[in-house]
Amino acid sequence: MSSVRGRLARRDPDRRGWLRGAPPPGWARVLPSALLAGVCAAELISPEPLDIGFLLGAIPPLAVLAHGPVATAVLGALVVVVLTVPVFKLDDPGSTDLLTVCFVSVLSVLLSYVRSRRDAQLVTERTVAEAAQRAVVPPLPERVGAVRCAGLYRAAQRGTLVGGDFFDVRAGPYGVRAVMGDVQGHGLSAVATVAALLGAFREAVLDQPDPEAVAARLDRRLAVDSAGDPHAELFATAVLLDFSADARIVRIVACGQAGPLLLRDGRAVELDVEPCTPLGLGLAEAAPPRVVSVPLRAGDRLFLASDGVTEARDASGAFYPLAERLPGLAAEDPVALAERVWTDLVRHCPDVQDDVTMLVLAPRPRDGL
């Protein structure tokens, strides 16, 4: 179990390692002082002088890893003091050795100053980047109208919060609408397309009376964005869900992507939703998308997953069996369900290479509130 937790920690993009901007670990801060204290204690305890003074030369460079310029300078000065005070029996270094230690200490202070300024700049840039990315895809509320919802997103590109997948749930005058999709490409290159699609979706929720009209609005957005570049070929797959005001019926439109799984009575049912043309390839010129209406009951949950989930393979090449695993992972809380599936997915495929997106929707019909 501990090895599984370790793999999960390494795969979580929100967890930053020491070399990716996180604060240095405690051992890195303690090591220079511990080494200095250890050398001094060994010399004081030993009846004979020990030839371990060379270890002191490593203390200023070690201090650079975790300390600022002031602390590095203090540790460098202590090293020079220990080398020149008779009580530690290290007071007979050659002049060249002592000058070398002084030079290394001064150089370490300079490097510590540069590292501290760089770390401060990285923290600022990361904070700005996270704020910008969360503005594009803000966290979902726990409840939108009569629908409880939870989204989970893990970007394939490390250090990013937004990639080629997207989802949103919004309430409007025509009910609660939800969307989950995947744009061409992934990583930061797809963020602009994701932002455009989500902006179009949020506007369409307010003034389009049915889900196929919302899909047409998204299709037009991509068509307009790619019109200026004949080689752009922007397209996206998406699933749109439109809940009735009493949350007893959901209408579904699938554009180049499979529909959701319905969790009901301990089973995961694949809804018969026929995908139409992907967004950006001319819905207006093709046949109108097929709208599937599904009656809902209290306790039903709709689970949508991107191809990063359904196409994840284990070491033998077997796809992740989402429909088979989902009933055993079911949880009343939508957030818990998404997290359980993510944990199980990483067990199946520890090295997930694609964006992973899940959207869990738990409608609460009025007679079930």
TrEMBL record:
One of its GO terms (molecular function) is phosphatase activity. Residues 147-363 form the PPM-type phosphatase domain. The chain crosses the membrane at residues 52-85, 97-114. It holds the Pfam family SpoIIE. Keywords: Hydrolase, Membrane, Transmembrane, Transmembrane helix. PANTHER family: STAGE II SPORULATION PROTEIN E (PTHR43156:SF2), STAGE II SPORULATION PROTEIN E-RELATED (PTHR43156). This is PPM-type phosphatase domain-containing protein. The lineage of its organism: Bacteria, Bacillati, Actinomycetota, Actinomycetes, Kitasatosporales.
